[in-house]
Amino acid sequence: MSENLTFDQILSVDGGESYILSILPELQDCFDGWPKKIKVASRDDDKTPSTGIFKHRESGHWMVKDFGGGENKAKSAISLCMEHENCDGSEAFKILAKFYGHKLTTTAEPKPAYSSRAATADDQPGEIKNLKFRDLKESDYRLIFSTKTWKELQWNGVTAKDDKARNEHAKALFTYYRCKALISYEHVAKDGSKVHVWEATETFPMYAIDETEFKKIYRPLATKLRFMYAGQKPDRYLHGLAQHKKYLDENKAKNNKADVAMEMAEPSEDGSAEAAAEKDKLPERFPEVILCSGFSDAINVAGCGFRTVWKNSESDDLETSQMKSLRKIAFKVLQLQDLDATGMANALKIASQYLDIHTIILPQELLKYAGNNGKRMKDVRDYLRKWSPYNFKKLVDQALPFKFWDEMKAMNESGTQKMRFGRPQWIYEFNQVRGYNFLQMNGFWRLEEPKEKNGFLFIHIKDQIVKKVEAQDIKDYITSFLKERQMPEDLRNKIYKTPYLNDQSLANLEYFKPNFQYYGADFQYFCFEEANGSHSVYKVTKNTLEPVKVNDVYFWEHKILKIETERKGKLKTGNFKKMDTPFFKAFKEEGEWKLELSEESCDFMKFLIGTSRLHWQAELEERMDFYKLNEEERENYAKANSLAEEDIANLLSFGNKKKQEAYAEKYRWRLDGALLTPEERAEQELCFINRVFVIGYLLHRHKDDARPWAAFLMDYKVSEESASNGRAGKGLIAKALYRFMKHFHRDGRKQGLLDYEHIWDGVDENTELIHLEDWDHYQPFPRLFTPLTSSLTSNPKGKQQVTYSYTQYGKFLIDTNFADKYTDGSSKGRKIYSVFSDYFHEDLEQYNEVRTPITELGRRLYDKRDWDTEEWNRFYNFMIQCLQFYLATAEKIDPPFSNITKRNNLALMGENFQSWADNYFENHFNTEVDKIASHEDCRKVGNMQKLTSHSFMKKLIAWCEFNDYELNPMDVDGWMEGGKRSNYGLIKKNVPKEGSITELTSRIFLHIRNRHHPSWDDKLPFD
Question: Phi then psi for 825, rounded to 5 degrees?
Answer without folding.
Answer: -60, -40
